Request: fold
Amino acid sequence: MRMARTQEALYAELDVELSWSERELPERERTKHVHRLHPYLGKFIPQLVEELFRRHLPARGRVLDPFAGSGTTLVQALESGLDSTGIDLAAFNCLLMEVKTRRYNLFTLEHDVREALARFEAGEGTAAAPSPYLADWFAPQAIDDLLRFRSLLGEYEHADVLRLVLARAARSARRTTHFDLDFPAVPQLEPYWCFKHRRECRPVERAAQFVRRYSLDTLARLKQFAHVRTAREATVLHGDARELEVEGRFDGVITSPPYPGLIDYHEQHRYAYELLGLDDLRERELGAAAAGTSRQAIEAYVDGIANVFERAAATLARRRPFVVVVNDRRDLYPEILARSGLSLERRYRRHVNRRTGRRAGEYFEDVLVAVRA
Ligand SMILES: C[S@@+](CC[C@H](N)C(=O)[O-])C[C@H]1O[C@@H](n2cnc3c(N)ncnc32)[C@H](O)[C@@H]1O
Reply:
């Protein structure tokens, strides 16, 4: 049932079409092809983006996502036949988006990945001395594997794909418990009782098995995507969305902004920044968990998001939709929209089917559809 169009629009009815159950939309579908190239906490599901394109974007249109994250909007735009531009502050997210959306010569891609893996498994490469962070978070053999693989990558045309494989292998090889992979606080050095597997588990000691598994998985997923994507353009812009200049006109904005005090987007991929030597711009993250939720932090957040929205809205042709997916439990978005010169036209509420286990529970999010006032 969709909500009737109304200007007050602060009350939203549940949109059943957007509230998939686990059976209707199993994890395999939500993480199809390149959507599972690397874990990323805080992404929206591809099928939601697909449906929002269908409802709000013209065929062969152009869409902008100023908080593009892991690139869900860009990947789905390629699948749906739209051009897209995505901005993100976090260098690792931009690498992830680039690898997902680039057009590959599948022959050279396969050659690069298989050759790098074969050389690694034959013992080639040399491991540099690990930084203090890497020495703390990885067992000696694991970091030796990772640094040796890293030493082989530079010479390949598809080095970025291999760098992503390296990051994913590093994530799995950290000294963490199996149930706390997102934000582990301290390295886990001893065997522990594992809530996920209901038995005693041990921290990982080697990384070579992950390098193999993710090299092959990445290759398979990039090939799958190559067969379903269109030839439209996806552009990735790295930087602060409050400052970047975006060229041209768009037919719609679709975005899910960071929410205050929830996630540190750089910190969740800290191992990748350390291993790949990426630029760390965390002090510019909007709504970073590290900044807390004091009144001052919330005001800075509202200012920052309104600034980004105003700039993004300025790229839209008249009456084109500005679509925001958010769980606005602090009720900040009416003010943010007003300050960005946007007026709310419609609001869908969707029931998010939370995973089982430690993240179980009822959870709703809203889809706000606005236009320039
Ligand atoms: C909720 S996530 C977006 C997730 C995305 N919808 C997806 O499916 O992957 C918000 C993103 O905003 C980015 N971000 C935070 N502050 C930013 C800023 N000042 N400029 C650009 N991006 C920023 C974060 O790095 C994060 O990737």
Remarks:
- The longest strand covers residues 342-351.
- The longest helix spans residues 208-228.
